[in-house]
Backbone:
């Protein structure tokens, strides 16, 4: 082992480099000299260990310099070759790409966030709470005492045994039938003014078929202040409908009944499928019902200790599945729970 | 409630030009949805608060008001006028005793009858309303029920022991065969009508078969009563028996209609030649209801509606519905008609005005924001961030049911006693609340695999339940290829893909999670389960688990054999608590200004030695300038002795304030190698 052999190696490399005329040639040269296992430079570096101790240092630095030279020369030649590559080296860009995996938020999440975003922009606080509830928050405080016939409107799933609440509050005995319990919880803890929405899963003892499901997603809203009127409710929900459908929509309020609001109404929007003329989508009525709403019943204010003479308020509640059916043109609600990727991957990212 | 327009018109002088559709639309616009129209008959949906509209007269009140009030002098279709004098006269010969407060009123009259078919006009009306004609006596009771909403019942006096009537609680185990020929066993929570010997009817629900009016009946006792709504509702629910009568009683029948109903029925029996009244009317009415009066303030009306309904319209609407309105300055004193059981306070009246004035006419306004708005709950924002993170990492969000099968839940519960079960599930498929996100996700994955979708990566965030309570978790399952491209062979996902998701999530919460072999993981392949821990002020806190699902489980959920499924689950509460503890703002550390030095190390170790132990030894024996240790290769096979593996690590050294010298790095590496040899008996792999 001597300095001369290092020079030899350098010459041999230059010759090989000059002879290389294609990227493949160049790769062969690189392997020949630098390969971790059989490369000639690698072998040279290893052999230095056997040289007399007094020569090792000098040889080592010569070998390192050579290695560096070779790497630089190869890289420079690589760059030149790439820049002047001919058609035969072209990559077939019509081959499938290596696409990064990406998932989508579930359509029910997307619609729910769409609703949340609209109300957040109107200054609403989004609150969430437990899915298993006690009778007080789900019914009693909402003007539905035990024997109230309105309880039949929401056939309830009950737990076999009470489950403790996280805050040592009342133990849960049922699966909430609406997120209204959160309105009660919020009012119990905060003084007016109130401007909240409460999204979440709710449960009813309904069959599972194309139009019903025992579990669905709801967004409920509540506004309480000193001068809240039915006109405010209308203005708010009209604004919501236009934002949600991203279009001028015609709305209609129909009087209805909910135990916790008075007056109560249902909001219909003109069917966009037929512009109100009547079609299969709207069951030939020209209207699609999208939510229930009303002015908060004074009994609800009394239940949470608000002064019902001083404060008024409105509340509304909508089913996300129903909105999603409309938005995506789906006609079977079960599709939202099957998690079929062929369906989910059609939803926008 | 089905009602023929011709019948409604008997009580409401509606414009002659108004057709069936116009009337349907007008009544629908004031809150009675129309379920269908067939010829002259409109089927209205009556909300739970309006039992008064489960009658033709009730609907007539709404219809006339919806058409803008009435021609001068027309009467509100309230109770029949005959009611005023009905109580006058001697009592009937059958004595009546009320033994329970659950019966608020009980009126009875006798009639001699000739049972036969009803005249066609009467039978037709019943049929139109969906009630099957039976005989003239029963048909008359049903006609009155439909017309004024008062349920009635006719007993065959000859078949009443006594004859007498006692309204009492049922005895334990008391038996009664009802008109529908069902033998029913009663209990002491149920109110019954009894004769001297036994129960003859379930109060407010259904009569008994033994005292039923038949072709041979010659004398009837007509019952017209008021039963407490909650009691009728409870009895009807317990017996699973809903009738026209129970539907009305449980919502609230007009207390004043009892005698009116009797008078109506007796009158009608006479008119159709079916019979005539015998003697007087008995009216047991222990505590007559007081008149209900409510004050309606103009200021409240305006404030709640956000509109000024003119005085004349307020008067018109309320009067037309049967309220007695007396103006008092700018306000009104209002007497509530007895049939409006739903009206008790001012808001109820405002609803009446609003309904008929028209919600659509109220001008839309927008409420002013008087206080600064708040950001969404932290939980909402966190869930949003988490979903976006996982979607960006290539996982698809799933939404699965909260209730699942017991058998699907059990492998994922700490023990089956901790499962929360539903008392009245729809079916066994929806019987328990999920103890983990994984069973639902596994089913969703299986659903896709069965449809030939091979590469499935799903996650879901939501609530899980145990007898301890409700908690928030995020779960994920992965199956199929890690990458799909023509340039490389397919490689299936494995435990480390699932672990990577956990580390990503922990990172999003600002913590680093560490994994240890999980011994107690019933759903995992033994040896392919990792318990996840994070540092909690020195202590180790369990936050979740990752593992490969047992093939027995995956095949039980319909997955083909040989499909590897890995998954994991993190408890968000635990992570949130931790984050709360280290919630101090996430400050950045200044970027390094000096270069780092890397050294690679290949060592032979016992195959059973965890990488974490090697890493621990390295860290314990390195200077503070060692900033990173990363395994980049693990190999066993040719060139590595049996029972050992070759582990390659890259060590990165860096000092904050200066450039490290080769010598000091070399010295640090030598110290590390020496420590590894001493501690684990490792040897350096030759290079």
Residues:
């Amino acid at each position: 082992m001597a300095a001369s052999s290092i020079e030899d190696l350098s010459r041999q490399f230059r010759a090989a480099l000059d002879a290389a005329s294609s990227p493949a040639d160049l790769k062969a040269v690189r392997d020949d000299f630098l390969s971790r296992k059989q490369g000639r430079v690698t072998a040279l570096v290893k052999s230095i260990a056997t040289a007399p101790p007094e020569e090792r240092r000098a040889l080592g630095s010569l070998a390192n310099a050579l290695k560096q030279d070779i790497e630089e020369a190869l890289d420079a030649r690589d760059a030149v070759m790439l820049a002047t590559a001919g058609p035969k080296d072209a990559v077939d860009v019509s081959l499938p790409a290596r696409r990064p995996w990406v998932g989508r938020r579930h359509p029910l999440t997307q619609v729910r966030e769409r609703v949340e975003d609209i109300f957040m922009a109107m200054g609403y606080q989004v609150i969430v709470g437990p899915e298993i509830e006690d009778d007080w928050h789900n019914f009693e405080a909402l003007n539905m005492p035990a024997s109230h016939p309105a309880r039949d409107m929401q056939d309830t799933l009950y737990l076999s045994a009470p489950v403790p609440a996280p805050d040592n509050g009342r133990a849960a005995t049922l699966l909430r039938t609406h997120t209204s319990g959160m309105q009660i919880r919020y009012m119990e803890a905060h003084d007016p003014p109130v401007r909240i929405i409460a999204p979440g899963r709710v449960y009813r003892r309904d069959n599972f078929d194309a139009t019903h499901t025992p579990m669905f997603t709801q967004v409920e809203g509540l506004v309480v202040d000193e001068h809240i009127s039915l006109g405010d409710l209308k203005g708010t929900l009209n604004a919501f409908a236009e934002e949600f459908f991203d279009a001028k929509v015609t709305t209609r309020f129909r009087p209805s009944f909910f135990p916790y609001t008075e007056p109560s109404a249902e909001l219909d929007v003109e069917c966009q499928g037929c512009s109100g003329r009547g079609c299969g989508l709207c069951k030939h009525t020209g209207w699609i019902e999208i939510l229930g709403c009303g002015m908060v019943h004074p009994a609800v204010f009394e239940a949470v200790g608000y002064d019902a003479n001083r404060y008024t308020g409105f509340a509304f509640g909508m089913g996300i599945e129903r909105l999603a059916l409309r938005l995506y043109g789906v006609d079977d609600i079960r599709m939202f729970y099957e998690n079929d990727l062929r369906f989910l991957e059609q939803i926008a990212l | 409630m089905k009602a023929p327009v011709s019948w409604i018109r008997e009580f409401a002088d509606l414009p002659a030009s108004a057709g069936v559709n116009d009337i349907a639309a007008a009544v629908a616009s004031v809150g009675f949805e129309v379920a269908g129209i067939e010829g002259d008959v409109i089927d209205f949906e009556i909300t739970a608060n309006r039992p008064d509209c489960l009658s033709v007269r009730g609907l007539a009140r709404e219809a006339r008001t919806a058409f803008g009030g009435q021609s001068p002098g027309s009467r509100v279709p309230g109770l029949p006028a005959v009611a005023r004098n009905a109580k006058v006269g001697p009592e009937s010969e059958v004595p009546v005793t009320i033994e329970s407060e659950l019966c608020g009123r009980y009126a009875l009259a006798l009639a001699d009858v000739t049972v036969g078919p009803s005249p066609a006009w009467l039978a037709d009306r019943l049929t139109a309303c969906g009630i099957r004609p039976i005989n003239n006596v029963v048909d008359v009771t049903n006609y009155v029920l439909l017309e004024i909403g008062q349920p009635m019942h006719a007993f065959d006096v000859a078949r009443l022991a006594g004859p007498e009537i006692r309204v009492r609680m049922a005895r334990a185990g008391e038996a009664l065969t009802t008109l529908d020929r069902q033998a029913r066993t009663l209990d002491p929570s149920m109110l019954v009508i009894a004769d001297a010997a036994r129960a003859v009817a379930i109060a407010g629900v259904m009569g008994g078969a033994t005292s039923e009016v038949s072709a041979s009946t010659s004398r009837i006792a007509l019952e017209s009563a008021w039963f407490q709504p909650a009691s009728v509702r409870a009895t009807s629910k317990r017996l699973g028996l809903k009738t026209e009568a129970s539907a009305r009683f449980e919502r609230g029948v007009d207390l004043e209609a009892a005698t009116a109903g009797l008078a109506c029925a007796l009158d009608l029996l006479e008119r159709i030649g079916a019979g005539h009244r015998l003697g007087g009317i008995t009216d047991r009415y222990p505590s007559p209801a007081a008149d209900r009066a409510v004050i309606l303030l103009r200021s409240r009306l305006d404030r709640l509606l956000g509109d000024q309904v003119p005085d004349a319209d307020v008067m018109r609407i309320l009067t037309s519905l049967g309220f007695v309105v007396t103006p008092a300055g700018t306000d009104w004193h209002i007497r509530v008609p007895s049939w409006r059981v739903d009206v008790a306070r001012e808001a109820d009246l405002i609803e009446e005005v609003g309904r008929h004035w028209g919600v659509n006419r109220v001008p839309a306004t927008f409420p002013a924001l008087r206080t600064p708005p708040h950001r969404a709950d932290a939980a909402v924002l966190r869930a949003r961030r988490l979903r976006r993170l996982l979607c960006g990492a290539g996982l698809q969000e799933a939404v699965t049911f909260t209730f699942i099968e017991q058998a699907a839940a059990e492998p994922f519960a700490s023990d089956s006693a901790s499962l929360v079960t539903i008392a009245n599930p729809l079916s066994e498929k929806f019987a328990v609340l999920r103890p983990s996100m994984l069973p639902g996700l596994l089913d969703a994955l299986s659903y896709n695999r069965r449809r030939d979708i091979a590469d499935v990566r799903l996650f879901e965030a939501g609530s899980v339940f145990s007898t301890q309570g409700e908690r928030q978790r995020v779960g994920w399952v992965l199956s199929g290829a890690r990458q799909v491209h023509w340039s490389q062979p397919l490689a299936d996902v494995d435990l480390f893909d699932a672990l990577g998701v956990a580390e990503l999530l922990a990172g999003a919460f600002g913590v680093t999670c560490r994994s240890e072999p999980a011994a107690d993981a019933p759903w995992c392949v033994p040896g392919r389960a990792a318990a996840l821990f994070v540092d909690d002020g020195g202590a180790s806190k369990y936050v979740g688990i990752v593992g490969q699902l047992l093939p027995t489980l995956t095949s039980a959920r319909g997955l083909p054999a040989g499909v590897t499924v890995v998954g994991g689950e993190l408890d968000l509460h635990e992570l949130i608590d931790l984050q709360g503890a280290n919630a101090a703002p996430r400050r950045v550390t200044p970027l390094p200004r000096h270069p780092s030095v890397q050294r690679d190390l290949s060592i032979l170790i016992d195959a059973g030695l965890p990488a974490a132990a090697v890493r621990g030894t390295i860290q314990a024996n390195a200077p503070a300038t060692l900033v990173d240790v990363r395994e980049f290769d693990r190999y066993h096979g040719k060139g590595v002795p049996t029972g050992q593996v070759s582990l390659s690590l890259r060590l990165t050294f860096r000092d904050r304030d200066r450039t490290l010298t080769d010598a000091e790095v070399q010295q640090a590496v030598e110290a590390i190698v020496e420590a590894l040899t001493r501690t684990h008996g490792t040897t350096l792999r030759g290079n």
Observations:
- Chain B has a mean pLDDT of 91.
- The CA atoms of residues 503 and 513 of chain B lie 6 Å apart.
- The longest helix of chain B spans residues 662-680.
- Chain B touches chain A through 91 residues (CB under 8 Å).
